[in-house]
Design goal:
CATH topology: Pnp Oxidase, Chain A
Radius of gyration: 16 Å
Structural class: alpha+beta
Distance between the termini: 25 Å
Number of helices: 3
CATH class: Mainly Beta
Largest sheet: 10 strands, mixed
Shape: globular
Number of domains: 1
Number of strands: 10
Length: 162
Amino acid sequence: MAERGPIRDTDDDARALARSLLAGARFAALAVFDRATGIPTVSRIALVPGPEGAPLTLISELSAHTGHLLADPRCALLVGEPGPAGDPLTHPRMTLACRADFVRHGDAGHAALRSHYLGLYPKAKLYADFADFLFARFEVSSAALNGGFGKAYQLAPEDLGL
């Protein structure tokens, strides 16, 4: 397998790992730009694969990260968590470069997203219909997969099945 510096050529194993991380993600670290300072800030969010596989979350406009995203939809998501033992740097994780797109109550497609999301997070029914909650769909432009030491890949949306 040819390598370009530390980045390996994307192969089917890398694609499978990346798709698995994305499909199995139920939370993520969300990085956004603070609308007042421009400094990056990170928050944890619930996350599911949307109906087409792209990342999807249900967030409140009362949270700071939502306000930042509404002001500047550029963001990044980190999926994949360390296992219960061993060096955390040996566990696979992936950073997704994204742009958030919002779907509010009454928007076309909201009911379908609500049904899909609640199918994966049924407890969200407690707050999904609150007026301040909206869906954020994340359009992925690229991904950086770290499959563990010496296993770094750059992926395109099509590598993720998006």
